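Human
Can I borrow your eye for a moment on a structure tokenisation matter? Give me a protein, with the fold worked out from its sequence. Write it directly below this note and I will take it from there.

Assistant
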Amino acid sequence: MIKLEEIKKPILHNLKEFDKKFRESMKSDVPLLDKVTRFIYKRKGKQMRPMFVFLTAKMCGDVNESTYRAASLIELLHTATLIHDDVVDDSNERRGFFSINALWKNKISVLVGDYLLSRGLQLALGGEDYQLLSIVSNAVNEMSEGELLQIEKARRLDISEDIYFEIIRKKTASLIASCCACGAASAGAGDETIAWMKEFGYTVGISFQIKDDLFDFEKGNRTGKPNGIDIKEQKMTLPLIYMLSRLSPVEKRRTIRTIKNHHDDPASVTEIISRVNESGGISYARERMIEYRRKALDMLVKFPDNDARQALEKLVVYTTERDK
């Protein structure tokens, strides 16, 4: 499998510099706030969003101060949404560590999320990066719409495939799309290239989310979440939607009732997972994931074959081959 270290090579010095700037962007004179932001910084993830920003910028032109602000803006707003999500979901864990609300309770968590959001806005306005701010603001709008659409549709647990793709395009893919659009914009690319890279990001983001769906049905994954957690949380994923679409109306209603009323029962969850596997839902989801991956890779052919493009191609493949 492709290693992240290999993908990072063309932008390694950019990521190191970004690391300093991102930490600086979160600092506060309020001791409690600074303590919480240090905790957040130490438990940062794989830096995949900054990687999309920097690789796109380098492929379309070159990395500059606007690119660093774009990466920080996206990471600040994304971190804020994760903190707020943990409060809404009453989740006590994030990436294998205690969440902010588990350690400092909901009130402080919400305020820290608000602070990070405002710091992102200040960063963009201070650099007069109005185009970047517009791109990321649209992404935050879409993420909120996607979450609310999922909540609305999940009440009946009867989501069509079209609605599923609309939800994940808004909820997950919009952020990766904003990374790629901001990377291109920060490098001085024209409107057509920015729009092209935004659509590329949507395509990658959809394949990324389908991979996440598959983790719920795969044994031995390293996500840190047990198999069937999406079913326990009554989330409609592509393999499950496919299985339901193959059932008779009577069987479909019965299965939906099982998910609604017995999602906490391990035996019922195991039975649902088994039925998804037998229906071909896993294979179908993998096929759709590879379809979107292929489309994303094809979209990069129009760019010069340089180290940034090659690394971006590897990052696309990595999103669908990762084990966590």
In short: Residues 92 and 103 are 8 Å apart (CA to CA). The chain has one domain: 4-308. DSSP finds 15 helices and two strands in the chain.
